[in-house]
Write a structure and sequence with these properties.
Layout (H helix, E strand, L loop, with lengths): L3 H30 L1 H4 L1 H27 L6 H30 L1 H19 L5 H12 L1 H27 L10
């Protein structure tokens, strides 16, 4: 009998790596082409399409491994979440590279605008020490990687809620058993 736990993580790593590398490379290319400033919707559409296609393709492939045992909605969702962990980590590295070396000025301005909106929402000026601390946190590689990881997992699982309806497979009952 096949070890489904071992193959679960192997398959999740394959799908997640494919997706994570695609998102990371697209992030870098999009930054170099100026899409973050001119057409951020293109980045969002690419990420959505890449996640949806990867979830469906690798989910179907995983479900096929189970054959007659069936592949439940919950198993599908767990596999998708596992896959998104790998993808999110790699996409986070891509975002860090993009923010640090490709769109440095844009990202610095983004952080300042975010802090201004945060101050306006709080209806008070943030002390300069807080602004510097928040600037440092938002530029920290660990924070960039883990915030991207968190976003990809949430986004992927959200897509997986719908995709799992189409990925799941019922158990095949043999006659006479």
């Amino acid at each position: 009998m096949e070890n489904y736990t071992k193959t679960h993580w192997k398959d999740a790593a394959q799908g997640g790596t494919s997706l994570g590398v695609a998102i990371a490379l697209f992030s870098i290319v999009a930054g170099a082409l100026g899409l973050y400033e001119r057409a951020p919707w293109v980045i969002s559409m690419f990420n959505f399409a890449a996640i949806a296609v990867t979830v469906y393709v690798f989910g179907q492939r995983r479900a096929a491994c189970y054959g007659e045992r069936g592949f439940s909605y919950g198993q599908s969702l767990a596999f998708i979440a596992s896959m998104m962990l790998f993808a999110g980590f790699l996409a986070g590295i891509g975002n860090f590279i993009t923010y640090r070396w490709v769109i440095t000025d844009y990202y610095a301005n983004y952080i300042e605008e975010y802090l201004d909106v945060f101050s306006a929402t709080m209806k008070t000026n943030l002390p300069e020490g807080w602004r510097a601390m928040m600037r440092a946190m938002m530029s920290n590689p660990v924070m960039i990687i883990f915030s991207t990881l968190f976003n990809i997992v949430i986004y992927g699982v959200f897509i997986g809620l719908v995709a799992s309806v189409f990925i799941k497979r019922p158990e095949i009952q043999k006659h006479g058993e």
